[in-house]
Amino acid sequence: MPMLDSHFVLTRVGREEGALMAHVTIHGTLASDPKILSTGGFREIVLLRVVETLEWYDGEGSRHTGESEHHVVIVSGPDAENSMSLRKGDTVLVEGHSYVGTLTDEAGEEREMTQVSALHIGVSLDKFRVPSNRTTG
């Protein structure tokens, strides 16, 4: 079975019949390098572990940080190959559908975990300075 990380084995990927899904946007940091998995067919998927931490400023301008949420993001199609160039620590934006999937831990016990099936994924530029190559004329 494909390994998600050292503690979990992915046992089911996909949408369940009648499952409730929500459209989500995640802005977070990769907790590890992408992992490529074979589904047994012609299609490969990439798993990303994304950590998202809510930050906000109060009325006095003080910065606050909330609890971190951990997401398993499943990337397929053309974005799967492109996402393999990402590395741990990169900040990403993910748009997709969130649903509950099942993971089996090393003891063989099944656990439910929220997963996101990515529709779009990109690098967030909030921590990078990108030089402009525009010309005037």
Automatic annotation (TrEMBL):
PROSITE patterns: SSB. GO terms for molecular function: single-stranded DNA binding. Keywords: DNA-binding. It comes from the Bacteria. SUPFAM superfamilies: Nucleic acid-binding proteins. This is Single-stranded DNA-binding protein.
